[in-house]
Write a structure and sequence with these properties.
225 residues; 12 helices; 2 strands; metallochaperone activity; DMSO/NO3_reduct_chaperone
């Protein structure tokens, strides 16, 4: 398993079945082609994750990535916000996936970082690095924010920055983050709920709203090529 696929799995919502593939995840670290220091960090991250109760690990993930927009794993959230350009960017990315035989078989937006990493893990290395270089500034920002909240996930973003060919120099980014008003506090979340209108439609979702399933080592594939 290459580094991008492994980081894709680790950044994704930690579903219960992940604990069934712990040995495969640990073994995959040795095949990821990362520097020894980063390999050690991955092993420590996985060991810490597997030592936690799944519910605890899932709550930690939700607290970090699903409360407020500043740590969103939807890349276009950081690039386009709520502008109309975001919709066209989604369409273009979907067309790129399909043109390269990557069909999404999960309920997930195409700019979801773990999904993008899974796609890039199927592409030539030079192409994958170029893609990541275009979003390296976002990955640096996420790394700096993660370091100030739950430091465990920060090295995963740093590894992606390094993979893009960009040196990890987070000093200026951490200074910027230190001046930010956090959007994941109860007060900030309540303010968002008060500001955003609730829209009801005639059709209810046909499936529940839990995060979409992802492919783990040894498990069934969630995409077809």
């Amino acid at each position: 398993m290459n580094a991008l696929k492994l980081i894709s799995v680790l950044l994704d919502y930690p579903r219960d079945e992940l604990w069934q593939h712990g040995d495969a995840l640990m073994a995959a670290c040795g095949d990821a082609g990362l520097p020894a220091a980063r390999t050690t960090q991955l092993l420590e991250f996985i060991a810490d994750l597997l030592a936690r109760d799944p519910i605890e690990a899932q709550e930690r993930w939700l607290s970090l990535f699903d409360r407020g927009r500043s740590m969103s794993l939807l890349l276009f959230e950081h690039i386009h916000g709520e502008s109309r350009d975001r919709g066209q960017a989604m369409v273009d990315l979907m067309e790129t996936y399909r043109a390269n035989g990557f069909e999404i078989a999960v309920r997930e937006l195409p700019d979801y970082l773990p999904l993008l990493l899974e796609y890039l893990s199927t592409r030539p290395d030079e192409e994958a690095r170029e893609w990541l270089s275009h979003v390296a500034h976002i990955l640096e920002l996420l790394a700096a924010r993660a370091a100030g909240r739950d430091g465990a996930y920060a090295p995963l973003f740093e590894m992606l920055v390094e993979y893009s060919g960009r040196p990890v120099e987070l000093g200026p980014m951490r200074q910027r983050v230190a001046r930010e008003v956090r959007d994941d506090t109860p007060a900030a979340i309540d303010a968002v709920w008060e500001e955003e209108a609730v829209r009801f439609t005639a059709e209810a979702p046909d499936r529940d709203c839990e995060p979409a399933p992802r492919r783990l080592p040894g498990a069934a594939m969630t995409v077809s090529r």
